[in-house]
Design brief:
There is one protein chain. With 258 residues, the chain is an alpha/beta fold. Strands 1-8-2-3-7-4-6-5-9-10-11 form an 11-stranded mixed beta sheet, sandwiched between helices. Strand 2 and strand 3 form a beta hairpin. The longest helix is centred in the middle third of the chain and has 14 residues. The N and C termini lie far apart (35 Å). The mean pLDDT is 94.
């Protein structure tokens, strides 16, 4: 039976040990619910299997610092400023970006690349996703230069409503370890109910249809391609405000391709 532990430093340390093992997977809390974390090809395969999810839907890359983000992804100064605005205000954000050449070299050479990029060789790079999982990702990066990949811990298309009991039997029995912190998840949106709280973060695409970085906008209007908000989520209004501060024009395309 999979072991459950409440969120604390000991459970974080155990999570790190699991992700250092070949094929290790676990469930951990974030600001918007629970995620499955993995760090190599075997772990990613297990993630897809327990979620019953098609392999054309890659997971996100969990970034524990702006320095890490800048090393492993391809950005320009405008996108860096956009991320920093969220970092400074502790706002969850994920952007679709190309990988940098240095970043590609850090991907485990075990086939993991095929399961954490889309067909355009882009991924969603996420920051400020919540202290429990941030702490785990930070230790793995700072001490081991190990990347962490994730996706929501629930059957594909069904939310967990911020409760560990809702991750589903397949996931609960298919991972190595589960960290429970329902109280932490509720604390992020205290005025919302299970039915009204966001179960995902905002996602913004910073690439064109071929996966190439959008050109610098330079505060000009009607530049195409432009940043596109493709998934609404936690702090949606704040993210749109920051988009408006950083770019003169941007697109709202809820549900667009990723």
């Amino acid at each position: 039976m999979t072991e459950y532990q409440n969120w604390d430093q000991k459970s974080e340390a155990k999570a790190v040990d699991i992700l250092l093992e070949n094929g290790g997977t676990l469930v951990s809390p974030t600001k918007v619910g629970y995620i499955i974390m993995a760090s190599d090809f075997k772990g990613l395969e297990r993630k897809f299997e327990v979620k019953k999810r098609k392999k054309n839907k890659p997971g996100v890359v969990l970034c524990s610092s702006l320095e890490q983000l800048g090393l492993i992804s391809e950005m320009n100064e405008e996108i860096e400023k956009f991320y920093k605005s969220h970092w400074d205000r502790d706002i969850l954000i994920g952007c679709i970006l190309p990988w940098s050449e240095k970043g590609k070299e850090l991907i485990p050479k075990d086939g993991a690349r095929t399961l954490m990029m889309d067909t355009r060789d882009t991924s969603c790079f996420v920051i400020k996703f919540g202290r429990p999982s941030e702490n785990i990702a930070k230790i793995l990066w700072d001490r081991h230069k190990k990347l962490v990949f994730a996706s929501s811990a629930n059957p594909s298309g069904i939310g967990n409503k911020g409760q560990v009991n809702n991750i589903g039997q397949n996931i609960a029995e298919g991972v190595d370890f589960i960290i429970e912190a329902d109280d932490y998840v509720r604390s992020i949106q205290p005025r919302e109910s299970e039915d009204t709280r966001y179960e995902q973060g905002v996602m913004v695409s910073m690439v064109d249809g071929n996966g190439k970085l959008v050109p610098k906008q330079k505060f000009r209007r009607n530049i195409s391609p432009a940043p596109r908000l493709i998934r609404k989520g936690l702090d949606n209004d704040l993210v749109m405000s920051i988009l408006s501060q950083c770019f003169e024009s941007w697109d709202y395309r809820q549900g667009d391709y990723y």
